[in-house]
Amino acid sequence: MKNNPFAAIFRDAFYKDVLDGSIYMPNHNTEHPARVKSFMRQLNRFISTAGEAPIMYPKYAFNEHKLFEYALFLRGYMRDSQNVLAHLEQKYAIDKDLIALFNASSEYVVACNGKIGDKRTFDNNVGYKVWKADLSAGLQNATYEQVVTSFTSERHNLFLFMPFRVKGTEEMLSKWMYVNMRQSLDNSEFKHNIDTYAIHYPIQKSRCSNITSVLKTLRFNDTFYEKEDMAFVKNHWLPFVAENIELNDQNKVIAADSFVPSTLMKKFKNITIFSYCAGTANAHRCLNALYDITQQIYGNKIADTAMQNIFVNSYGFLPVRDKLRYSGIHFYTNATQDDNRREPFVNLNNHTLYEKTKVTNKKMPARLSVLPDERNYILAFKLSDKIAFWENSQVREIVDAEFGHNMANISTPNLNNGDNYAYNVFKNVLINSSLGKRGGEVLQMTEQTSAHNLLTHSMVQAQLQKIRS
Fold it and tell me: Mean of the per-residue pLDDT values for the chain?
């Protein structure tokens, strides 16, 4: 797309991070491998279409490992470009040429497997890893078991769609679940009354492949899903839809024993999701796939009503559209003085909505907004400078280098903030929604909530603003 501001960002980063220190040979063209030429062809196409001069890379003899790291870090360059984030137009963030570039980068890193001395091996056709969590001893001591069968549709279920791509070991999963969710899942309800599952991609899925999926989700949000998303639904969610479902190779329903509508509504109410960052795009696509099957059996009207009973809690990823099929609350954190401190991924996913909903009142800890569908809320919290917490009888600190994107902002009781409003609200919403509460009920605080937090919560709710399409 012409004038896409990320073209200059990528071009400058290439000269700095790939070509710096390499040998320039003005009268000679280096013969690079086909994988390099293919990726560079797409990179130069993106840069040139935007109006920037192409990169004359054949004149350089550079270390290919630098190009490999550059391809993996493209989203990082976007994240760090605060000057662009300040005035970003959404069309540039989901530019079809940008999607083609990320797709080329994902193909390039796979083509590098075993050829450049890097020990990492990528495979972008891998499916989700699914685990059931045993939280009886708390999240820090949780155990996990891989799941290959369907989930129980008669019980309350919380599905955690996490953005990390980690080795498929219980130890690694346990570490990253605790790093992100911290104390937010330490509650008797999660120990006894709610089945909790963790869903993530394995380490073989490259970052650039994941971002390609995210960008396609943002651009084609209403119906788009990938084969891995449909595979997840067929493997795990069909009992929520009907009994004895049979699908052909094109995912068309050829047989099913449907439920009465009231039973379908009840079962869909047992689907509650928490998703973090890119995990929200994964969850959204899986819900698109679920809707595809549901509407084939029940028709659009009943399917639409059923989907509204599904509740999505997300962090660090604003809704992909103004009117969603499902219901939910979407959290993020921002600095009230956000010049050059904008939450980068929230900006990249929906800059306009970020500007409409961010915290701007220095005296308030949060800002509550509701989307035009009147079923999806956005709750933005004020960013703390540091997060201090107890761990193993010691005080530890986290500095959020991404200006609000760290989950610890709402999943950790912060010793620097005795009120801990964000943590208390998030934990209450997660419990309420997981137990099947919907609408404004999920915002109810527990009886144990401090009087000051209850007063603060009332003030935040009183400032509810409606977002116009």
Answer: 96
